[in-house]
Design brief:
This protein is an alpha/beta fold. The chain folds into two domains: about 120 residues, Quinone Oxidoreductase, Chain A, domain 1, CATH 3.90.180.10; about 140 residues, 3-Layer(aba) Sandwich (Rossmann fold). Strands 1, 2, 3, 4, 5, 12 and 13 form a seven-stranded mixed beta sheet that branches. The protein has a six-stranded parallel beta sheet with strand order 8-7-6-9-10-11, with helices on both faces. Helix 2 packs across helix 3 and helix 2 crosses helix 8. The protein is globular. The structure holds zinc ion (ZN). The site of zinc ion (ZN) has 6 residues, from helix 2. This is Threonine dehydrogenase and related Zn-dependent dehydrogenases.
Length: about 300
């Protein structure tokens, strides 16, 4: 049982999401030191509050930003890194990944009527898609190589889906935009081929947002073309805690208000005793998979 400081709260963890960045650690990739105490997508109920904590009381449901150790019955965390989750099912109160998606969409600044291309229809792609929908886009085109992922995307909002194994995304975007290209393209895969595609489908002076987590080696882009096309390139990766918390605050407000709902994108649930299977599932990505979460109460 962790001890708490005066500014901390003790959370009885209800759920912790399995993050793609942790699957890398689970695979044992080089350059990572072990042991690691993973788990940072925590939701739960406040069990105890520190002497200086006034904004929460025992029994309050919260989503929390923690740096690790979330696959546990209890975590201690600064109260300022917790946000209310009233009325939100705790297995769907995934504040931390939502923070990344909120910040990506806000920094990219999708405008009303923008034609938007989303490359990657995994969990993060779906979150970005849901938030783009709230912005009131024009046409939305979603690309992926998995039909089940594209079917989920079509349920999120009206969009043209492209299975890149069967169709050329560049051709579809050119056709739908009269040869102009997308106003905004989100690359949400973290691999090379979609990054190249992003440069091929974006209009002159349009925005390319890099949301994917580009691990494992360097990437190549046709910088001459990107430069000539005057792309606005947005690095949608956030490290500053203040920025992460701002995104999480916005994401939790949207969840509490019912503006977004994650019930269709949390696809696989496990108990703590099956945490290894939760990771294995996030690694193998079986048909129908978008996100694993681990429940401490199951
Ligand atoms: Zn995460």
């Amino acid at each position: 049982m962790p001890e708490i400081g005066p500014a901390e709260v003790l959370i009885r963890v209800a759920n912790c999401g399995v993050c793609a960045s942790e699957v890398d650690m689970w695979e044992g990739n080089a350059g990572i030191e072990f042991p690691r105490h993973v788990g940072h997508e925590v939701s739960g109920v406040i069990e105890r509050v520190g002497a200086d904590v006034t904004q929460f009381a025992p029994g309050d449901p919260v989503a929390a930003w923690v740096t690790g150790g979330g696959f546990a019955e209890y975590v201690a965390v600064e109260a300022e890194y917790c946000l209310p989750a009233d009325g939100v099912p705790l297995d769907l109160a995934l504040g931390e990944p939502l923070a990344c998606a909120v910040n990506a969409v806000e920094l990219t600044d999708v405008a009303l009527g923008d034609d938007v291309v989303l490359i990657g229809a995994g969990f993060m792609g779906h979150l970005v898609h849901k938030l783009v929908e709230l912005r009131g886009p024009g046409q939305v085109i979603v690309a992926d190589a998995r039909d089940d992922a594209l079917a989920r995307a079509r349920a999120i909002g009206p969009c043209r889906t492209v299975n890149v194994r069967e169709e050329s995304l560049a051709e579809v975007v050119a056709e739908l935009t009269g040869g102009r290209g997308a106003d905004v393209t989100f690359e949400i895969t973290g691999v090379q081929a979609p990054l190249t595609m992003a440069g091929e489908v974006t209009r002159m002076s349009g925005t390319v947002a890099i949301v994917g987590y580009h691990q494992g080696g360097t990437r190549e882009i046709d910088l001459a073309a990107w430069n000539w096309n005057a792309f606005r390139v947005v690095n949608a990766h956030f490290r500053d805690v203040g920025v992460i918390m701002r995104g999480m605050r916005t994401g939790m407000r949207l969840l509490r208000a019912g503006r977004i709902d994650l019930s269709d994108v949390v696809t696989h649930r496990f108990g703590l005793d099956a945490v290894a299977t939760a990771f294995e599932t996030a690694h193998t990505k079986p048909e129908g998979f978008a996100k694993s979460t681990v429940s401490m109460e199951a």
